[in-house]
Amino acid sequence: MTFHLCQVTGTLVAPDGSPLPEVQVQFLPAPVSARGVGAQTLAPHPVSVLTDPEARIDVALTPGVYSVRTRAPEGREYPPFLVDVPGGPVATLADILLHLPAPQSVYDAAASARVASKAAADAAGSAAAAGTAGDSATAAATSAAAAEMSAQGIADTAVQVQADRAGATLAAGQAQTAASTAQSQAQTASASAVQSGVHATTATMAAVTAEQAAALAEASNRTFASRAAFEAAQIPADADSWTVLHAGLRLAYRRDAAGTAIESANGTRGAPVGGVRPEHWGAAPGVDCAAQIQAAIDWLEAQGGGELLFAARSYPIAATIRVRRNVWLRGEGWHFEGDFTNSAVITGSLIELQPGANCDLVLFRADPAPGVTVRQRLHGGMRDIGVFGRRSNNFARAAVDLNAAGRGIRMEGVSYVTLDNVCVFRCAEAGVSLGSFDYGGGVGLLSCNNMNWRNVLSTGNAGDGFEIFGGDGTYSQLVAGFNGRHGFRVGDGPLVGCKAWNNAERGFTISSNAGMIGCDSYDNGHCGVHVAAKDVRLIGCEIRTNGTAQLPNARDRAGVFIASGAQDIVIEGNTVDNKPGKTPTQQVGVLCETAGVRIMLGTNVVQDNTLANLAIADLTTAQLHGSVPAGDLRHPGFTATGNIDLDDRVLARAKGMTFSVWGNVTFSNGVLGVGANTVVFANIAAGATVTELTADISRGIPLVIVRNASAAPLIFQHANNRLRLVGGVDRTLARNEAIMFVWVTGSIWQQIG
């Protein structure tokens, strides 16, 4: 648990009203009897400060009730008083005083022991002239001094640990009794030292009693001022839980013989209680935390999974962190202090690679085992956390002087991994990388399945922003900017609402049947979108002012370049141009240099490109619809009815053409077959539940809109391998309501509206 601090200021004065400059002031946890008199009931840890030459203090305190003690440089102590520190950000000393006498505490026991020690010393001095009996009195003085040290030890222990435990209060009382006994015995020794040494023996016994009381006080305490203090302690058998102050946190533990988080000097092991943190295993600021983070992850996996919590600070590592099954890494958020320039600094919850480590930072991979199945592989992810590759302190994209290798996040042959609000920054290779993996045992390569990434920023990396190959998933609101190669290299999709900006090479490289829906690609060094695959859909995207590296080839300065090997490309509802007010570096809007490529261009805004808006090598396999400038392109010829103006197969003037698609729709056993139709009106009188969608992708657009024309409800059932619905829940259409799907692969369709 982390407490917010209160800044306390004020002037300290003596009982006669005179100021107390340059005196030591101790804010000590108030004893149990004092707690509850103010607004706070917490028992904070002690703080010691000095007043300045004007007797002022300025100190940050955890909320709670304190006993305040002052000591002048010459050793004089002033009467203690109580303060009640509030939970607000600031307070003045005068406003938080509790006008009550400070209750008796273990410090009073220590003072009594000091009196006993002095009395015994006086007895020894008196007995020096009495001969051998003086030896006994000297022994009494020594024993009483031991009593003083023991009682003072109780006080110091109570300051160091949480003083609000009933056991500590009991121990303090026993210490006071022991000290009083020592004082009484010392006085008796002073009176009769010349006659007998019996009293010296009694004083020694009193000192032993004080030592036993001190041991009892230590056993009663359950809060340790540091991890080292616990590791050096002898923990009693009845201590089932305790708290350790470490790295600015109060960390709770429970006794666990199999615990891996902490171990005392007598072998008492502990496991975390409540939120699990790397600090439970000893992670500390400024030092390599890889082993502690990995130990925490391994322990969580053994418990069946859970969250590993990261505070808002940097966690340096010099080795790869491997995330295991059902484990989540969760921080407190991240942010930039800068504007993505050389001065940009990322802060918040960060896993940071140490210089010279040259390794991946975070790896998602299951344990290798024969016969690994999709269900067995891995569930988990990362939320609200940053990954800092520290390739260089220079923000230049090619600089790798601190780390020359290492990806930010790597996933291999795993499934059901979520990234949410994650930043990957300045890695020497790709920011986020996904691919297949061979776990052995004859299983072969296993791809990554059912990925769910959203709100992920990958920026300032020397390689690609995102590498997505070997699997399937849903990727939304991903941003790749200022990377040394491509923003995205994708063999899987769809990508929804993603952005690629100011990358050194391409914005997007699509090498498999993926889709881009509502994505942006702008200000990239090479082309905005490079398509080298079949069945790719670009729908509702903005592709603007790319080719900023101004290379000589048109393909490197195109908005969309359709490469050899591409086929059945749908480009619908996009804006492809140079942004007004910027240097027009994008030469061609849509470029295809290969004959025989089937392209369907719908209603796009393709304009203001410096050489040509559309450059299609083979129009016989292209379908052009929508608004096209007069004389700019020849259509391949088609049969139509209605008012379409044609002149020698040239579109005479711009026309906004609309059409309605009607056709035979089949429904049987939950399977809705829409053929090559894009818009479907379902009129099933009795209502129905749709579990699967089939369509003729080769002849139609892989985008289907279904509208319920019946009064009966039409239900679409969610399944990851059939119909993937938003939020993973079924959708019921009332009359005249509609739903929109885009084809992903095989029998998988993704709801997009």
TrEMBL record:
Coiled coil: none
Annotated Right handed beta helix domain residues: 408-580
Pfam (any one): Beta_helix
Domain of life of the source: Bacteria
Signal peptide positions (record): none
Domain Depolymerase 2 capsule K5-specific C-terminal as annotated: residue spans: 658-750
UniProt-recorded name of the protein: Right handed beta helix domain-containing protein
Organism expressing this protein natively: Rhodobaculum claviforme
